[in-house]
């Protein structure tokens, strides 16, 4: 064969053998997770943490973010029988408890129709809203909240 | 009494007295043994293992209770079935134990022996317990929780406010803390499809607009 083709063939053989004969470790050494652990290793767990105690509302980081829960929700029932969150956050009761009322966005069904109470789509609050803990971030970062909210 | 002319009569009385004292002593000891045995037998019906030996209790209320703070918590200080449902002082305890024969009767009848039957009766059973606690000013809660010794500096914001306002308004524990150990019956919150449920007013019979549940 001519010289360029022969050189190409040799380069290909070398490249492929580096991957095959060198074994997976040859590549894996260059792949590392952000937390510094090997991809296959178990994740480092956070230190023992506590749920943040009751406090004032926490500022959001994004405009569309479901606000986080600034109090403990241990033992609160959200089931077919009863939604404990709505006991304080419903429009008819929030003033009594000085709680944040559920947003208007929760009152639409899946076809966009308006409802007079929260939609079954938004019934299970904890799918989007979470309480906070004092666990440290696992990775240092320079995150800043959205421009309009700073 | 003893200046008899008949010494045999005196000895007869002496024998009778000795027999009487002997029998009295035996009766006294027998009474202690009986009382202790009775109490031991009664206390054997006064623990969690006995209560959940009926499947109606084990499958329904015990399973629900296992998710709650009275079952497992940071300090491991627990309240089991009798701590909340059987008074600790003698008179009330005996009264409750006599009333418990009704529970044996319904166990035999199978009144709540399936989950569906239990859920159908759940509201009525719950309300009778709430009424009992309301009547006794939550006596069983106060077996362990003494609100005069609440440390408000370590309670959360919301419980601080609710406790101070509620207790000074003369409320009792069960007015707010319903559903703390077992699941609540269905409550109508006007969300979604109407179903067989009760309105929240059932749980706040005074109808006051004070600190709700």
Summarize the structure.
With 150 residues, chain A is mainly alpha-helical. Chain A has 4 helices and no strands. The model of chain A has no long low-confidence stretch (mean pLDDT 85).
What do you see in this structure?
The complex is a heterodimer of chains A (150) and B (213). Chain A is mostly helical and 150 residues long. Chain A has two domains: 1-31; 45-150, Flavocytochrome C3, Chain A (Flavocytochrome C3, Chain A, domain 2). Chain A has four helices and no strands. Chain B folds into two domains: 11-44; 54-203, no CATH class. Helices cover 54% and strands 0% of the residues of chain B. Chain B has nine helices and no strands. Chain B has helices at residues 7-44, 48-51, 55-65, 81-85, 90-99, 101-109, 115-135, 157-168, 173-176. Chain B is elongated. At the A-B interface, loops of A face α8 of B.
Draw up the topology in text:
The complex is a heterodimer of chains A (150) and B (213).
Chain A: H1 3-22, H2 24-28, H3 86-89, H4 94-97
Chain B: H1 7-44, H2 48-51, H3 55-65, H4 81-85, H5 90-99, H6 101-109, H7 115-135, H8 157-168, H9 173-176
CATH topology of the largest domain in chain A: the name is Flavocytochrome C3, Chain A, domain 2
Shape of chain B: elongated
Determine the number of helices of chain B (DSSP H or I, runs of at least 4 residues): 9
Sheet having the most strands of chain A: none
The poorly predicted ranges of chain B are 207-213
Number of domains of chain B: 2
Strand content of chain B: under 5%
Shape of chain A: elongated
Share of helix of chain B, binned: 40-55%
Report mean pLDDT of chain A, rounded to a whole number: 85
Give the SSE string of chain B: HHHHHHHHH
């Amino acid at each position: 064969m001519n010289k360029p083709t022969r050189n190409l063939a040799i380069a290909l053989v070398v490249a492929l053998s580096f991957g095959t004969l060198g074994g997976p470790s040859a590549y894996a050494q260059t792949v590392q997770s952000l937390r510094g652990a090997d991809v296959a290793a178990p994740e480092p767990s956070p230190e023992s943490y506590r749920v943040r105690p009751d406090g004032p509302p926490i500022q959001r980081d994004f405009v569309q973010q479901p606000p986080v829960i600034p109090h403990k929700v241990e033992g609160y029932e959200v089931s077919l029988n009863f939604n404990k969150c709505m006991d304080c956050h419903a429009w008819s009761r929030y003033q009594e408890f000085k709680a944040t009322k559920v947003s208007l966005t929760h009152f639409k069904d899946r076809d966009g129709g308006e409802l007079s109470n929260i939609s079954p789509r938004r019934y299970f609050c904890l799918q989007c809203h979470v309480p906070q803990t004092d666990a440290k971030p696992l990775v240092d970062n320079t995150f800043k909240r959205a421009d309009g909210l700073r | 009494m003893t200046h008899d002319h008949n010494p045999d009569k005196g000895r007869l009385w002496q024998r009778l007295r000795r027999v009487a004292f002997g029998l009295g002593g035996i009766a006294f000891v027998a009474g202690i043994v009986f009382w202790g045995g009775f109490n031991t037998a009664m206390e054997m019906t006064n623990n969690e293992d006995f209560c959940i030996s009926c499947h109606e209790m084990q499958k329904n209320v015990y399973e629900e209770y296992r998710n709650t703070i009275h079952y497992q918590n940071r300090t491991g200080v627990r309240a089991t079935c009798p701590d909340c449902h059987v008074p600790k002082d003698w008179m009330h305890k005996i009264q409750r134990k006599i009333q418990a024969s009704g529970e044996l009767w319904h166990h035999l009848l199978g009144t709540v022996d399936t989950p569906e039957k239990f859920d159908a009766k759940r509201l009525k059973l719950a309300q009778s317990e709430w009424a009992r606690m309301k009547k006794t000013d939550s006596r069983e809660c106060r077996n362990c929780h003494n609100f005069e010794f609440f440390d408000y500096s370590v309670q959360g914001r919301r419980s601080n406010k609710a406790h101070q306002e509620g207790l000074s308004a003369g409320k009792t524990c069960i007015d707010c803390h319903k559903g703390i150990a077992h699941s609540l019956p269905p409550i109508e919150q006007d969300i979604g499809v109407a179903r067989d449920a009760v309105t929240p007013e059932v749980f706040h019979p005074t109808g006051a607009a004070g600190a709700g549940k």
